[in-house]
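User: Some background: our group keeps a shared notebook of sequences we're curious about, and every so often someone picks one and asks for a predicted structure to add to the entry. Today it's my turn. The entry only has the sequence so far, pasted here. Could you supply the structure so I can complete it?
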Amino acid sequence: MYRRIIGGLATAAAMAATVLVVTGTPANAAGTGTGYLHTSGNKIVDSTGATVRLTGINWFGMETDNKTFHGLWANNPWKSQIDLMANLGYNTLRVPFSDDALKPGAQATSVNTASNPDLIGLSPLQILDKVVDYAGQKGMRIILDRHRPTSAGQTALWYTSGVPESTWISNWKSLAQHYAGNPTVIGADLHNEPHADGTNPNATGSCWGCGDQSRDWRLAAERAGNAILSVQPNWLIFVEGVSCPSGGLSNIWDNDPSNDEDCGWWGGNLTKAGQFPVRLNVANRLVYSPHEYATSVFHQNWFDDPNYPANMPAIWDKYWGYLYKQNIAPIMVGEFGTTLASNIDKVWLQELMKYMGTGVNGMSFTYWSWNPNSGDTGGILKDDWATVDQAKQSIISPYLIPPVGGNPPVSPSPQVSPSVSPPVSPSVSPPVSPSASPSSGGGKTCTATYKVANQYPGGFQGDVTVKAGNSAISGWTVKWAFPNGQSISQLWNGTLSASGANVTVTNLSYNGALGAGASTTFGFNGSWSGSNGVPSSVSCTAS
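Assistant: Of course. Here's the predicted structure to add to the notebook entry:
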């Protein structure tokens, strides 16, 4: 189902056309496994055979006129947003894009050069490369989602007159080659939300199993999936459903029930996949990826069932859940979301999370969306692009498997000038502060480590990692004094109290409880002049 996106800003920036080729070493993370992933029955497994569950988030914008991630216009830097995703427990990032963003000379717009100076002059693909690199360092995985042929809007078919199937497949093969050897990028979501168009019997939209080469999404998915696997056999191929298997809307006024059918969400109907499975030339690479939404997107008739929500598991079973329950293939619910404006939607989200299961053996998912500017779902972030919507996060959080570890940093391509992405100024010495770990009641302790993550004229970004000692803690308080008159303008993942140079930060409701040896991170934007020395000591008190 099409979701309204509240558009980005119109600020333009000059972009470089150079391609930054990113390579990496195998991911090594408890949350997302080791090396490339493949499938086994209804499981996604890593290179060692260990079961992996992808519990991720969508960060959109690269499919719009901006041609890059939305929120890069915000004061919260892009790296801090990824830090927050990982800290909240999202181990996978689904990245929508359109073919427009891959064109030679494509320019990313609405990038805040103050908060994101390292993105100045980069093309959409170069910005994506940096996100892939940093997400890999956090232990996260990336799924690329060809969301639209152009930034103009969603299409019922996977091609248009201006973007033929050959372009779609060629661009996918180029991306697969571009990220070859980098297992942070694990696969391709071939096309977003193929759906019905036209009225039966004159269907013109995407069908499943109808045999029409121009409309059968199942056959198109095979063509694209096999083309990708011919150049990158390690990728997973994510295939969404359709809305109506016939590819056409039912004509309920023609008194002919033979051409009526039970349709679902755009991309959400996989009822025919059991009968007509997607056939790939490389075994154990197929993941089915339905979409599922609540009343804030569209009020489906099943929400009015007197037995709601007890009727929902059978509906999910019918449309896509049977593929998982019959051990046919893994399920990765690529999009699901709601504003939570109604109690119906709150119950829907609670029940859907339970249906997908708990722990590593549950179904994988990527929530829609990180962005607050999805008009009929909102996001995990609120409008400042830094504050978490706790009502949503509290429902999703118990089902998240956080990333751990990740890829080592990747050296930048020599094609990109080092001045584009300057390191922290050598004048910042030491870059990491010593940390104190005073005891509190019950022998509970914690440490806090202060780091300047990024610095630019007049401003900087700081990160503070709080780590519990040998015992679990229920809360923490961090204090320090700035040595050179610095001040904080914005802080996330904590509650700030400042008086002059003295800073106190306490935990929020979701990141205070830490197991023994566990850690969390809060970050901030600040200003400086003259010098930007780190505090001589940073104290952490646990409760």
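Suggested note for the entry: Residues 217-231 form the longest helix (15 residues). Helices lie at 78-88, 124-137, 165-178, 217-231, 312-325, 343-356, 390-396.
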